[in-house]
Amino acid sequence: MSKLVYLVPLLPLIGFLINGLGRKSLTKSLTAIIGCGVILISFIISLVLFFEVKAGHSEVVTYFDFITAGNLKIPFAFQVDQLSVVFLLIITGVGFLIHVYSTAYMHEESGAHYARYFSFLNLFVFSMLLLVLGANYLIMFIGWEGVGLCSYLLIGYWFKNPEYTAAGNKAFIMNRVGDFGFLLGLFWLIQQFGTLNYSDIFSKAGDMKINDAALVGITLLLFVGAVGKSAQIPLYTWLPDAMAGPTPVSALIHAATMVTAGVYMIARSNLLYTLAPTTMGVVAIIGLATAIFAATIALKQNDIKKVLAYSTVSQLGYMFLGLGVGAFTGAVFHVMTHAFFKALLFLGAGSVIHAMHHEQDIRKMGGLAKRLPVTHWTFLVACIAIAGIPPLSGFFSKDEILAAAFSANTVYWVVGVIGAILTAFYMFRLYATTFLGKFRGSHEQEHHLHESPKAMTWPLIILAILAAISGFVGVPAVLGGHHELENFLSPIFAGSVKLVHDHHEIAHSTEYMLMGVAAGTAILAILYAVSKFSKKPDLEEAQGFGRVLQNKWYVDELYDAIFVKPLKGFSGFLNAVVEKSGIDGIVNGVGRLVNYGGRQLRLLQNGQVGAYILMMVVATLVLFIIQLFV
Amino acid sequence: MTINHYIFLSVALFCIGIIGVLTRRNMIIIFMCIELMLNATNLLLVAFSKMHYLAASVADAATTAGTDGQLFVFFIMVVAAAEVSVGLAIIVMMFRNTHSIDVNFLNRLKH
Amino acid sequence: MNPNDVFITFPELLVWFPLLSGLIIFLLNKEDQVKKLALTSSFITVAIVVASLFFTDKKYYNFNNVSYFWLPSLGSSFALMYDGMGRMLCLLTSLAFPLAFLSSYNKSYTKPNSFYGLMLLMQSGLIGVFCAMDALVFYFFWELALIPAYFLSSRWGGERRIQTTFKFFVYTFAGSLLMLIGIIYVYLHTPDFTFSLRSFMNTKLPTEKEEIIFWLFFIAFAIKMPVFPFHTWQPDAYEQATPSVTMILSGVMVKMGVFALIRWLIPVFPYASQLFANFIIILAVIGMVYASLIAWMQDDLKRLVAYSSIAHIGLMCAAVFARDESGMKGVMIQMFNHGINVIGLWIVVDLIERIWGTRKISELGGLSNASPVLTIFMVVIALANLALPLTNAFVGEFLMFNGLFSHGIWTTAIALFCIILVAIYTLNMVRRVFYGETKRENVLSLKTIDVNVKTALVIVVLIILILGIYPKPMFELTQDSVDVFMSKVKGLF
Amino acid sequence: MIAIILSALWGVVMMFSGIFFKRKSTAGIIAILGIVALIFVSLLEYHSYLYLPLDIKGMLTFSAFSQVFNLVAFICTLIYFLLNASEFEEVGNDVYEYYALIFFILSGICIVTSFNTLLMLFLGIEIISIPLYILAGSDKRNLKSNEASLKYFLMGSFSTGIMLMGIVFLYGATGTFNIQAMHLGADKPTPMVAIGLVLLLAAMSFKVSAAPFHFWAPDVYDGSPTIFTSLMATIIKVASFVAFLRLFDTAFGKMHVQWQLLAAIIAAATLFIGNITAVFQQSVKRMLSYSSIAQAGFMMLSIFALNTFAKEGIILYSAAYSLASIGSFAVLVKMKDYSFEGFNGLRKTNPFLALMNTIFLLSLTGIPLSAGFIAKYYMLIGTVKNGNYFWLAIFAVLMAAISAIYYFRLIQAMYFKEGNAEAKPLSTTYKAALVITAGLVIFIGAFPNVLIKALYN
Amino acid sequence: MGITQLLFWLLTVMTLGSALMVIFSKNPVHSILWLIVTFFSISGHYILLNAQFLAIVNIIVYAGAIMVLFLFVVMLMNLNESSSPVKNKWLRFAGVISGGSLLLVMIGALKDTESMQKEVLMNTGNIGLINNLGIVLFKDYVLPFEISSVLFLSAMVGAVVIGKK
């Protein structure tokens, strides 16, 4: 059966081709069926694979040599193991739901564009599957770039609008900055290990000493790639802009799947990272910083999608914190739960926007609870989940990360908890301003307010259920559970777990205390937020420090000032001065010199015999002197 | 007399000719100076021929060494005569067209 | 068939056939006749090359190598060899011309017969360069490819064409004359006084001389490629020449330089090329960044493409001098792929100019509303240009960077900086030209994207995708040349 | 030997036929007959079917080298006649005399290429020069022609004086005029020999118009009637080069290293001045005269190199350069306007002339597959082989690159510039001759062996 | 210091002096006359060297024929002081300087080299006599002799071509 793994990415590709080539001829419904159908089938296959792997045989399926250069052989191979199937399920599952959702959400689009949308979406799923299935870093990189491309295409889906396309460029280019590091890391890997296959590399890396310079370098460079892809400091600014794309796209790409590619990559190469504690420290700090920093920004955003975007960034920060402190399972766990509730949040937001006729400013909403019951309830579930209130999923995953952070370094934990409080606060600020209070929109908006169609609500409901219960696959031992996910993934992380066995186990009492503090403070924050914003939301422009937050700490402006402008100026200088008058000037100068020489030299030919003979005599004289006295 | 007397004499004569060519603008004079140069060479040739003759006649009295030098002079005179005839013809033609014998009068051809 | 009796070898066939058809075309004067004949002949050439790909085996030696005395007194013999790299580049050449013809098929030139005739002469010259095994023959073809290029691009093209082409000509001519001196010098030191590549390789020059002669060769090739800072002729020439000529210039002729580095320069001067490798790599890398930065500033599509191609060539040059096996393979297939991609770019640019009547990015906009098809082609080719995985350029660039890495991490880092820059300028171009609101109405009806241009573009895109997903054939094709090269430079580092 | 006699005799024949035939056009026919006979005879001589048992006391020696060169010179002359026969009548009334003088010149050329004593060299050069003074001034009404003639005459006879002084000093030092009997050693020359050498170098450089003794050339070439310019600039010049090479190879060959530097300097100067000055010229005729100086610079390389490559090369160069120059001068003659603008758009008005001229110009530039390339190539390989002064070769090629500037300027004018250049009507013989010339240029370029092998029969 | 030396010095002074007069005298006719004087003194030298034949020929050909030809021409053009132009003095200066330095260089190169002390046989030795020269001329030098006829022929033709109206 696992020979059939190639079908998993292939089907979306086929969907892409059919929808892309036949976009003129296909009817919308047909497009929708193809678009969703292929994903559904690959979801089913992934399920089968999952159970196979659970039954306990994971394997590497090789198809053909992609690159063979001297001793460097890179096959086109897929790896089916615990980690990849988990991601397979997330991608295809959530992906399928989002596809279904999109069929309704994108319905106003004309046929061709509709098909274009679905083909891009399928292409994205294809590349994402490639990313997680690849059995070596090159295939991963192919998927890595592929998802980047799709996000570029989908952000700029409404290509008429220059801001949107600009956002697409920004996303792609920032990802390129990440790829810069990633590629460099790959080359270093090749130089170090002579291969890119996971299995060979990890087996070779096993017997390298801790903090080997090469390993630190490689892991850091790979991490740069992850920073770009998963929108961490300093390369996170593209993600909020990426909200320009259609909301389901934001749900799928910029919340559930693509942005977690970095997490996947580090989890995949966990051994290398555990061998390079220095890098681990960097990862943890970056993650923590991102988590808190993004959370602060999210406090003051008024665009519903922007809030969610920054919360995504911050949640990703948590995942990296988890990775940084060695809680790989926790990170993957959080990826899963986050995929559910964040997708749910985005889809809910989408449903709201749909209902409000593309109004995204929460200050113009309010009191939608009655009008959009399904959306409201599902949204609430998601908010509770992300806020980390037991027993919903977010609690378990976040708690696992925080616990690990605590055992690594108390400061991590403190900051992490503060971040969690902020999360709870801004999420419920959003919830309250959107759904509670009374409606603040215009009249025809109010007149048209209605619950979204079934195709949109059902995915919400399913995701809500998942967001609610998915936490129970990872109930920690303290709460009498035995963490199925950890057992399932243990083969992947076995190597690194062996290395960090000295990881001192923290007492149960402490754990209870930690959970209590986290959950309690979160609840307090929620209550404060709800009470504060359900009655009188802050409609006026933020002042003072709030303004700074609202303008995202002016980071974009900063980057513009230190990177973009100088570079532009410099290349302008090169183009105008160095190229034109410098290099080309020299070349033309030679020509002009020859011409000038011709004009001057011919004056020697002054037409007077006397002068000619004189010059001949002088020349003879010179020859004499050279011949006789030199 | 030793040969260097003759060498210096004719070289001097030769250079006088050159100086004449360089300093005068009257083309006839210039031409005459060229003749002067030729005569310098002739003189030196004869001197050399006698020198070689002397050197050779020590070995055998009936040598004809050096004869060729004098014959060369003869040929030079021949050529000179021919040149003069042509040259004067050209000069006359010039004078006919432009009533001047100034070499610098003609410099349409330049640069 | 029996491998030993050959009527005519492939290289000869490939050199003479375009030459003859070119000469025949000179005599015709009906435009459509001329076009048909030119197109057919170019396709036949493709067929020949494709056929030749089945005779790569050792036992077909006589099909692929020819050599007979030409100037015995000079020890020069008309020797052609047809090895992997030669095949690959001949394939590129033979593909480039049909593409060029197709894309401009319904465009009428003044004096079509001389245009197409010269084109085919150039083709024969180029193929000769790629097959020559004898230094003098190599030089001959090197010039023979230049002369038609000169006439083509100064007879047909923009209004500043004469000066720019002339600059290009004198520049390259001076370079190749320097190379001639180098050839002569090496020849005089060959053990058996022949110009054959083999004896050139066996010649051991005194080191201090080798250092000088190396530069004589390198400058010629550097001008041809062109490598920073010898590149200034290129953007003007590309801008001014007529598109189908530009395709050949940038798609094929530029490869002559890279080819010459691999076939002649480094194997003949292994010591000097090792000595100066650092310097040249740094030069090339600087050139890459420099050209990318300038390409960013360009407002003229043609100039933008020109500078981006300078950047790509710089990478090839650097990778060649890194002399790492994987890098070499990268160079090999990148020579082919870059040719195809840049031709695709030119086709699209030419279309845009023909349809919208301008090449200025600032004046264009929202073309995708008018012509989604063109947009799709352009986007695919642009993605190939920035070496996105699963497009043909990726494999090559990946390997080249990898080869460069073996030379040093910092140079690689600087060079890799270009993948960011290339993304910046390519995507900006795509965005400003194709996206947004329509700025300018098309002067021609879109009917002018007629079937032959579409065919050309489809061919390009297919090659891009197929070689992007399954590059293996190219690797196998060029394996032997890489082995020869590596064996030459192995001993030294 | 017979060639010398025959050419001299045919000169006389031409003179007298001037009395019997009144029609100018017959002169051309008779001349062509004569030159054909000359070619035939010298072919027989070359294959030694014909031999004149005449004791010339070692005044001349006819080597294969000189004979091959004579053949080349004769063939070039034949082509020259075929191309310009009609133009002779334009110049003046004394057509028969012009032909007669040219035949005398030919006998002079034969002497100069096979001389063995300085006396014969002197006589030969005079026989070449004196008729040239006349031909230069043959357009009597035209002041430019007069001026050219006068300048050529004055400076020519001056250089004769210089040369004689050189000969005298050599005689003084060695006691003989026979260049083979001089036996000058390889070590540093005595002052007398040195002076003789330098003076002879100067005089010969003057004859071949090598800088800085070239000043006469542009003016004289420019002023004289174009057809005679093309004679002077090609056949005469290469003949003088052969004499130059023969003299310095036989007399001073052993002490080559002692005077190489001078030759190198002269070659470099000639290349530089010739090429650079040609760039700015506005009249094609004058450009071609400067270009002939530039080409002389390349030929000087053979004097510098003085090895087998140089000797074979000078033959090739003579053929290649003479043919190409005669051709493009012949094209020039047919043009109404000699300025560059006068050639604008010749492609449209007269594609045949344009194509032919392009071939000649490409050959002069030294593009492969044209004779010019092989010739230049031989010069360069000789220079590099020589071992010293490697910079000279590089300098030479850079100058060759510059030469492309002015040659291609003409091609540009003909092909890429708009305009309507006017050319005189062309006779069929002219066209045929032009095609033959172009064919030879390409043939020699492709198979130079034919010529090289002839040197070693 | 015998009579020969005396004569030698005398003639030398005459030669050089008259040569200088040739180039410095304003009037062309005068310079022609001075040139004739020079030729005579050179013939004197020939006699001193016992090259009688050349001495005679020199007088006949040069002083007789050529100079008369010059004289004719000058008379024909009836030139006088005024019409004989002068170069600007810088050029003349340069001419004198360069000519003089050429002289100096040659002298400087040639003086005190041992071969310079070779004796020259004065007023004896019979190679200069007409019969010896004649024999050699018509035995060994017959070819150049004939060739020179070609030279004359061409010169004649040329003179005619140029000279006739």
The whole-number mean of residue pLDDT values of chain D reads 92
Shape of chain D: globular
Q: How many β-strands of chain E, per DSSP?
A: 0
Shape of chain E: globular
Order of helices and strands of chain D: HHHHHHHHHHHHHHHHHH
Please compute the radius of gyration of chain E using only Cα atoms.
20 Å
Q: What share of residues of chain E is helical?
A: over 70%
Order of helices and strands of chain E: HHHHHH
Distance between the termini of chain E: 59 Å
**Annotation, overall tally of beta strands of chain D:** 0
Oligomer: heteropentamer
| Class per helix and strand makeup of chain E | mainly alpha
The radius of gyration over CA of chain D amounts to 21 Å
How much of the polypeptide of chain E forms β-strand, as a percent range?
under 5%
Average pLDDT figure of chain E: 86
> DSSP strand (E) fraction of chain D?
under 5%
Helical proportion of chain D? over 70%
Write a structural description.
The complex is a heteropentamer of chains A (630), B (111), C (493), D (457) and E (165). By secondary structure, chain A is mainly α. Chain A has 26 helices and two strands. Chain A has a two-stranded antiparallel sheet. In chain A, helix 1 (7-21) packs antiparallel against helix 2 and helix 8 (213-229) packs antiparallel against helix 11. The mean pLDDT of chain A is 89. Chain C is built from 20 helices and two strands. Chain C has helices at residues 10-27, 31-52, 61-64, 84-103, 112-131, 135-155, 161-189, 197-202, 207-224, 233-240, 243-268, 270-297, 301-322, 325-356, 367-370, 372-385, 392-405, 409-434, 451-469, 472-490, and strands at residues 65-71, 76-81. The longest helix of chain C has 32 residues, at 325-356. The model of chain C has no long low-confidence stretch (mean pLDDT 89). With 457 residues, chain D is mainly alpha-helical.
